[in-house]
Amino acid sequence: MSNQSKQNEALVTHIYTADPSAHVFEGKIYIYPSHDLEHDGESFDDGSQYAMEDYHVFSMENESAPVVDHGEVLHVKDIPWASKQMWAPDAAYKNGKYYLVYPAKDHDGIFRIGIATSDNPAGPFKPEENYIPGSYSIDPAVLIDDDNKAYCYIGGLWGGQLEQWQTGSHNPEGKEPAPDKPAYGPRIAEFSDDMLTFKEDPKEISIVDSDGNPILAGDEDRRFFEGAWVHKYDGRYYLSYSTGTTHKIVYAVGDNPYGPFEFKGTILNPVIGWTTHHSIVQFNDKWYLFYHDASLSNGINHQRSIKFTEITYDESGNIQTIEPYEN
Ligand code: FUB
Predict the structure, then answer these.
(1) In a 3-state reduction of DSSP, which class is residue 104?
(2) What is the model's pLDDT at position 7?
(3) Among 135, 182, 187, 207, which is most buried by a count of CB atoms within 10 Å?
(4) Are 143 and 208 in contact (CB under 8 A)?
(5) 125-136 tens-digit pLDDT
């Protein structure tokens, strides 16, 4: 099968998969998605329709090779601290080990971030007994920087509970800011050297416009909603994320992992389904966007499928916008 024919097609068709975090480990592309279970329930603003209780890992020898399902690598029933909602995970390699970094609700219904480890990128992963102290919200994404420091980006509005963490402690009544106030940013925390805790309290990241003014909460085409991902290109840090209600993947660029990040533009226009969630990875000399949509299920929001497509940069480092259904 040619490279071109695999792009923009559902990569996995025997189960529903979403939120793909792709990495190159041991010379292959490994994909760490979440797993949407099928059901007939309705959708809610808090995402409780997502029936997600385990993770599978997938790999491809290269971008045109068949996708291998390595099976279930972690199940919520094996995690002492977690009760449900195994949402979007990520994975990282450090200290000679593979780390699966994932969100789940604890026994009080609060999203936390957990760690599970393996000697093999394909798992299975052994969960730590407790979640990372001081962690909260969803959609962890790990950046291992060139100096080998590891950072965790987290955060998501609405069902992702980021509004509940604006005061330094948990406030279940937390709300989104007024439309004319700065939007809430994702959070960043540096991992400890053993990758099992954070070295610091998560800090808020600022996303600004080209004049240096914060992106406002009412600017729904540009404000952060969920699904942060950070990659480096030409020495700069690219923070990409979902705008949620306007269903775009957009990006902003900065000069260090903590930002600030200046908003640049749209990477992916809306796909079929409410959510949009992605990762960006370099494989050989090309760059790829992994994402999901709900086309395989004919638009059922909680039955999504992972896909990928190539991204290109212009000579100034700007990413060209992708129209998801134009080949
Ligand atoms: O898959 C569950 C949630 O939906 C993810 O955590 C969000 O990013 C959105 O894709």
Answers:
(1) strand
(2) 86
(3) 207
(4) no
(5) 999 999 999 999
